[in-house]
TrEMBL record:
It comes from the Bacteria. This is GNAT family N-acetyltransferase. Gene3D superfamilies: 3.40.630.30. It comes from Neobacillus driksii. SUPFAM superfamilies: Acyl-CoA N-acyltransferases (Nat) (SSF55729). Transmembrane segments: none annotated. Residues 1-145 form the N-acetyltransferase domain.
Length: 145
């Protein structure tokens, strides 16, 4: 098992994983759209991706987006996407990817890593809490189009 920071050289692997991730969230498969989206993140340096390998087979990824806190005057990272192929689940890849994201945040002097998940995603919630994430109860989150 290895986790490494992804580069444009892994675009084909990441495209397959990213498309599968979207399908998992009930989106239509769109391989070319996924490829364009991931490639644009690399070109614009909008995000940081880490890819997990089971020996030489890519099996998962985590994608982080930067944000900033005006109050603390520090960068933070949003763990926006986490995916592990079904065949590689329950082997620790998700946990390793999250820990790599936290390590990266520490290395970059960030305030921390935030994430959100569905109320019904109990499996993910259990993993996040095991790693040390705390459920936020002091704030309401709003969204507008």
């Amino acid at each position: 098992m290895s986790i490494q920071k992804a580069t444009l050289n892994e675009l084909n692997f990441l495209t397959e994983l990213f498309d599968s991730y979207r399908v998992f969230y009930k989106q239509e498969s769109d391989f070319e759209g996924a490829r364009a989206f991931v490639k644009e993140r690399f070109i614009n340096e909008d995000s940081v991706l880490f890819i997990a390998y089971d020996e030489s087979t890519p099996v998962g990824f985590v994608q982080l987006y930067p944000t900033f806190s005006s109050v603390s005057m520090k960068k933070s990272w949003i763990l926006n996407d986490l995916y592990v192929n079904p065949s590689a689940r329950k082997k620790g890849f998700g946990e390793k990817l999250i820990k790599k994201a936290i390590e990266f945040a520490e290395e970059t002097g960030a305030k921390g890593v935030s994430l959100e998940t569905g109320h019904d995603n109990v499996t993910a919630q259990s993993l996040y809490e095991k790693i040390g994430f705390k459920k936020e109860s002091n704030y309401f989150y709003y969204f507008s189009i």
